[in-house]
Write a structure and sequence with these properties.
The protein is mainly alpha-helical. It has 4 helices and no strands.
């Protein structure tokens, strides 16, 4: 976080953010590549909720596995843990 705090409001979006998409921080954002960069940002934005759900599901599956619940219902988790 300290590194992010050292940026001015335009530094991150104009430099470091584009490294996420395989570009160099020093690459200029031009009319020619702005649409591609914007499309990449929009794709990531729309995928984020799906990724969060996947992380939650994977985490729950891994935490529940040792207890072998009958299903993914709260009561079955509770019974398996207390079991």
């Amino acid at each position: 976080m300290a590194q992010i705090d050292s940026y001015t409001p335009h530094d991150f979006p104009l430099t470091e953010m584009q490294t996420i998409f395989g570009r160099e921080a020093t690459d200029a954002i031009t009319a020619a590549n702005a649409d591609e960069l914007l499309h990449s940002i929009e794709s990531c934005k729309s995928a984020m909720p799906e990724c969060a759900d996947k992380v939650k599901k994977d985490l729950m599956d891994r935490l529940a596995a040792p207890f072998s619940p009958a299903s993914h219902v709260y009561g079955d988790y509770k019974d398996a843990i207390e079991g």
